[in-house]
Amino acid sequence: MRYVALLRGIAPMNPNHRNEKLRGVLEGLGLRNVTSVISSGNVIFDADSGSAARLEAMIEAAWPERLGFTSTTILRSRDELERLIEADPFRGRDDAPSGHLNVTFLKHPPAVEVSLPFRPENGGYEITAVLERAVCSAVSATGAPTSDLMRWMERTYGRQITTRTWKTVHRIVARMA
User: Fold this and answer.
1) Is the distance from CB of 130 to CB of 91 less than 8 angstroms?
2) Closest Cα to residue 76, out of 128, 134, 34, 30?
3) Nearest CA-CA partner of 163 in 140, 138, 142
4) Do the Cβ atoms of 169 and 74 come closer than 8 Å?
5) What are 171-174's contacts with CB under 8 Å, separation 24+?
6) HSE-up of 11 (CA within 13 Å, CB side)?
7) Could you give the CA distance from residue 32 to residue 123 in angstroms, rounded to a whole number?
8) 88 to 73, 92, 137: CA distances (angstroms)
9) What is the pLDDT along the chain (177 residues), one digit of tens a residue?
10) In the sheet that 134-140 helps form, which strands lie side by side, from edge to edge?
11) Residues 6 or more apart whose Cβ sits within 8 Å of residue 160
12) Which of 62, 137, 151, 177 is deepest in the core (most CB within 10 A)?
C-alpha cells in the first residue's frame, strides 16, 4: 500500500526537519520506497497492508524518540488523494496570484458540519468542500490573510490538522504514481 505522511509544523531550516532525516526515520521503521515531496513534511512510503491508524501512530511516536520533536502526522493513501482530486472540490478553479487553493487534512472525521460554501463575514476565504477528512478552501489575495483561515480551521476542527496547497497535493499524487 502506498501512503503519504503529512506532517504538521515542519520548518526546513530546522536540521531535524530536513527531508533526509524524515526519510531516515521512516526507513528505520521498516517502511519501503521512502521519498519526499518538497521540504514541508510530505513523506511517501510503501507499507504492507495493515491499519493506516496503526502506521500513523507508529510514525508519530517516532519523531520525538528519533529526532526530538513532535508533529501531528496524518496518513493518506494514494487512492484517497486520487479520489479527492477526482472530486474537483474547487469546481475547476485554478491556483493563481489572485487566490490560492488549499487542502487542510484532518486527523479525525470532522465533528462539526459547515454549510457550504462557507464564507465568513470578514471575507478573504471560502470553504468549498469537506471530503474524506479534508477541508478545501480558496483564499483571496485581496481579502483577509491566510492566518485568519488557519485560526478558523483550528477553532473549528482542532489542532490535529495540516494544510497543503492544491498544487502540492497534485505533486504528491504524481510522485506516488
Assistant:
1) no
2) 134
3) 138
4) no
5) 171/37, 171/38, 172/4, 172/37, 172/42, 172/44, 172/81, 173/78, 173/81, 173/82, 173/85
6) 4
7) 44
8) 25, 7, 12
9) 999 999 999 998 999 999 999 999 999 999 999 999 999 999 999 998 779 999 999 999 999 999 999 999 999 999 999 999 999 999 888 888 778 899 999 999 999 999 999 998 877 899 999 998 999 999 987 766 778 899 999 999 999 999 999 999 999 999 999
10) 125-131, 134-140, 99-106, 161-165
11) 8, 72, 74, 106, 107, 108
12) 137
Q: For the chain, what percentages of helix, strand and coil (3-state, to nearest 5) are there?
A: 35, 30, 35
With CA atoms as reference, report the closest residue to 31 among 44, 45, 21: 45
Q: What angle do CA 139, 143, 149 make, to 5 degrees?
A: 50
Cell 521498516, located at residue: 30
Q: Which amino acid is at 170?
A: H
State the cell numbers at 143.
481579502
- Written as nine digits, the cell of 19 is 527531508
Total length of the chain: 177
What grid cell was written down for 131? Answer: 471530503
